[in-house]
């Protein structure tokens, strides 16, 4: 029995040298608990480029940032840049949630960071149709991160927003869940470019 | 007692199937033991290239030792003008070295193209400079593979090359590794 305990201890000691990868969690998103209209992003280090005017190669800006933990309020145009309004009750819209370059390029304060909800503002009767659009080549290639202009946006996740029954009102969608529970939800849950060709 | 032991053994057996994220270890840095003026960089894959049709490729970089006493490799003389002062740097592989070494060309040096701060009196000031570099200050992130923020401390001798104290993993009053600067979450590097 002593031998078995000793073996356990040896394995535990070996595990003590393991350094977990904290960068996996950086810039990861999660909904509120209980769900509301916000999505929360963990802080982390990110290297972003920007081509503010689609200018020549040499003018391309490249900077490193240490991003604080941030919350995107999808019902607030100041937070996510666009105004989410429905014209059809209970319909769905789809978006990509992206982190924008900060308003102040050098040592930005937390308030200088904002998000961008990239969508087409098309509305669909079913969540499946919205997901299909989110997954489409054409839509993903219409994203600012692909075009590069207007400041780089770092993709975080996809979002399917479901209208709460009120039309013509800003921010009239149901709370955001981690999975589809019949309300709004995050999908795909992780679009960070961890294995992308450019990193 | 036996049942507790069996339970713990079962837990360990289950954990044995866990595969750690090996990408985390790519280009991870460690000091020598005992500390000297070198840093040891693990092997890893980098993808030099990116924008606008620029060269794009995978490059397996082997284990590399950064010797701060070799100006040909580091492009840094480390010749201080103030005794006991600190210098904050971001250790980076040179873009040309990372990009061309796989093409078979004899592109040996310099291996490093570091982002170098100013000589400052305190470690906190040197750390603040590194923090600023990692928070939008200067467009230094061009054609480099960033690795680690390192604070180098002068050994008391001025006007002489490589006059730094050994590099520790943490601040023990000598030179030390300050913070991870590897580019994990990146667009268009």
Total count of helical runs of at least 4 residues of chain B: 4
What structural category characterises the helix and strand content of chain B? Answer: alpha+beta
Mean pLDDT of chain B: 87
Strand order of the largest sheet of chain B: 7-6-8-10-9
Weakly predicted, low-confidence segments of chain A: 51-57
Strand content of chain B: 25-35%
Helix content of chain B: 10-25%
**Mean of all residue-level pLDDT scores of chain A:** 84
Tell me which protein chains meet in the greatest interface and how many residues each side has: A-B, 45 and 41 residues
Beta strand % of chain A: 25-35%
N-end to C-end Cα span of chain A: 50 Å
Summarize the biggest pleated sheet of chain B. 5 strands, mixed
In DSSP terms (H or I, runs of 4 or more residues), the helix count of chain A works out at 5
Number of strands of chain A: 10
Rg of chain B: 20 Å
Can you describe what's shown?
The complex is a heterodimer of chains A (199) and B (189). By secondary structure, chain A is α+β, with helices and mostly antiparallel strands. Chain A has five helices and ten strands. Chain A is globular. About 4% of the residues of chain A have low confidence. Helix content of chain B is 19%, strand content 28%. Chain B has four helices and eleven strands, in the order αβββββαβαβαββββ. Chain B has one domain. Chain B starts with a helix and ends with a strand. Classes of the chains: A alpha+beta (199), B alpha+beta (189).
Helices, strands, pairings?
The complex is a heterodimer of chains A (199) and B (189).
Chain A (H helix, E strand, L loop, with lengths): L1 H14 L13 E3 L6 E4 L2 E7 L10 E7 L2 E4 L3 H4 L11 E9 L14 E5 L7 H8 L2 H4 L3 H4 L5 E10 L13 E2 L6 E3 L13
Parallel strand pairs in A: 9-10
Antiparallel strand pairs in A: 1-2, 2-5, 3-4, 6-7, 6-8, 8-10
Chain B lengths: L1 H14 L13 E3 L6 E4 L2 E3 L12 E3 L2 E4 L3 H4 L11 E9 H6 L14 E6 L2 H11 L10 E10 L13 E2 L6 E6 L4 E2 L3
Parallel strand pairs in B: 9-10
Antiparallel strand pairs in B: 1-2, 2-5, 3-4, 6-7, 6-8, 8-10
């Amino acid at each position: 029995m002593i031998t078995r305990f000793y073996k356990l201890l040896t394995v535990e000691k070996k595990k003590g040298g393991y350094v977990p990868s904290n960068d996996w969690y950086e810039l990861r998103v999660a909904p509120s608990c209980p769900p509301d209209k916000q999505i929360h992003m963990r802080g982390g280090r990110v290297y972003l480029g920007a081509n503010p005017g689609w200018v020549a190669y040499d003018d391309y800006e490249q900077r490193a940032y240490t991003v604080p933990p941030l919350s995107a309020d999808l019902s607030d145009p100041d937070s996510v840049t666009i105004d989410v309004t429905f014209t059809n009750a209970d319909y769905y819209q789809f978006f990509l949630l992206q982190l924008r370059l900060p308003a102040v390029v050098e040592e930005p304060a937390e308030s200088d960071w904002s998000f961008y909800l990239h969508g087409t503002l098309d509305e669909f009767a079913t969540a499946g149709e919205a997901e299909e659009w989110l997954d489409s080549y054409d839509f993903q290639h219409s994203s600012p991160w692909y075009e590069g202009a207007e400041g780089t946006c770092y993709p975080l996740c996809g979002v399917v927003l479901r209208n709460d029954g009120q039309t013509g009102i800003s921010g009239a969608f149901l709370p955001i869940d981690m999975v589809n529970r019949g309300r709004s939800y995050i999908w795909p849950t992780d679009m960070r470019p961890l294995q992308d060709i450019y990193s | 007692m036996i049942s507790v032991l069996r339970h713990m053994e079962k837990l360990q057996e289950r954990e044995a199937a866990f595969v750690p994220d090996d990408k985390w270890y790519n280009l991870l840095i460690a000091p020598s033991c005992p500390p000297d003026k070198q840093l040891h960089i693990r092997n890893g894959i980098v993808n030099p290239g990116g924008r606008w049709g620029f060269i794009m490729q995978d490059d397996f970089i082997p284990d590399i030792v950064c010797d701060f006493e070799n100006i040909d490799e580091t492009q840094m003389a480390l010749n201080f003008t103030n005794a006991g002062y600190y210098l904050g740097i971001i250790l980076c592989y040179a873009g040309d070295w990372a990009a061309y070494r796989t093409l078979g060309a004899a592109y040996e040096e310099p291996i490093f193209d570091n982002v170098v701060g100013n000589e400052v009196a305190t470690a906190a000031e040197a750390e603040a400079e590194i923090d600023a570099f990692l928070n939008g200050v200067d467009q230094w992130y061009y054609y480099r593979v960033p690795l680690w923020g390192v604070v180098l401390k002068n050994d008391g001798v001025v006007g002489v090359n490589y006059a730094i104290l050994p590099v520790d993993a943490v601040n023990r009053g000598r030179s030390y590794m300050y913070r991870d600067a590897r580019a994990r979450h990146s667009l268009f590097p």
